[in-house]
Design a protein that fits this description.
This protein is of the alpha/beta class. It contains 11 helices and 7 strands.
């Protein structure tokens, strides 16, 4: 499969699941559904589904205001052109990186456009896309790769413009998943949920809004009540296996990069509407 069509780099992003999720949708839905992620992050899988017309529309939600601000800038007529101009005009250097980091850290003091851009800038410049990390090549910019190596402006602008062209099929929200999930489930029909919450083990190191044990338990109770079909991805942890007893749970490997390539053993869990789901490894591109 080609590179992710998301403008954001995300550790453990699920864009590689595209062939599999595309198959699930074609298998279980007569008509293209509304695709929903309650923890959207980079939303690489959702963008792939949208641009290939595998789904009718998408709903992006992230409780992290900074991630929400980025997506709002991408799809909003109010912000899009100015956001693209910022990409063109903003230099890629340590002085600018420090300015963008300050905006991100003090996002309450800045408008949505500048917060969205700071989030994007740090994500593209930092190691493994981790916004709270240091830039690629280090503060002194003396590494083998430098902070601009993942910041091809022309390519990124094209990705953003491709998404903007489909803005009439995209909704963006900034809500707590615990409230967002039942709200969407009751409001819409013909929905396919893909839940990718903060992981149990790696969560605190990767996510601004990580979960504690009780958060994972509470989420499992909410998801168990969802009427529309769903899949859920997690790290393989006994807590998660206990929370989702009674649902089909399978393990799979997804290669991703955090400083070095490695395979992460993960779980995919299925709602009871997805009867006898096919196995992931038959569809993931190696």
């Amino acid at each position: 499969m080609s590179r992710s069509k998301s403008p954001l780099r995300y550790p453990g992003g699920k864009a590689k699941l595209y062939p599999y999720v595309k198959h699930l949708i074609s298998k279980y839905y007569e008509n293209p559904p509304i695709y929903v992620e309650a923890y959207s992050g980079g939303f690489g899988l959702g963008i792939e589904l949208l641009l290939n017309n595998d789904v009718s529309s998408v709903i992006i939600n992230d409780y992290d205001y900074c991630i929400y601000a980025f997506w709002k800038c991408v799809v909003s007529q109010t912000y899009h052109n100015r956001f693209v101009q910022l990409i063109k005009d903003t230099p890629i250097n340590i002085e600018t990186w420090q300015t963008q980091r300050d905006i991100y850290r003090n996002y309450e003091q800045h408008d949505l456009l500048n917060v969205g851009f700071a989030t994007f800038y740090l994500n593209r410049c930092n190691r493994s896309g981790i916004i709270n990390s240091n830039p690629i090549g280090g503060i002194n910019q003396n590494g083998n790769y430098l902070m601009d190596c993942r910041f091809n402006k022309d390519n990124l602008i094209k990705l953003i413009n491709d998404i903007y062209a489909e803005r009439h099929r995209i909704e963006v929200f900034n809500r707590d998943a615990a409230r967002f999930i039942p709200w969407v489930d009751s409001k819409y029909t013909n929905v396919f949920f893909n839940f990718d919450p903060p992981y149990v083990t790696a969560g605190p190191s990767l996510y601004k809004n990580s979960y504690y044990e009780q958060n994972h338990i509470d989420l499992s109770e909410i998801i168990a009540e969802v009427i529309n079909p769903w899949i859920l991805t997690y790290d393989d942890d006994n807590l998660i296996r206990t929370c989702y007893e009674g649902f089909v749970i399978r393990r799979y490997n997804l290669t991703y990069s955090l400083e070095e390539k490695r395979k992460g053993e993960e779980l995919i869990i299925y709602s009871n509407q997805l009867i006898n789901p096919p196995r992931v490894h038959n569809y993931i591109t190696k």
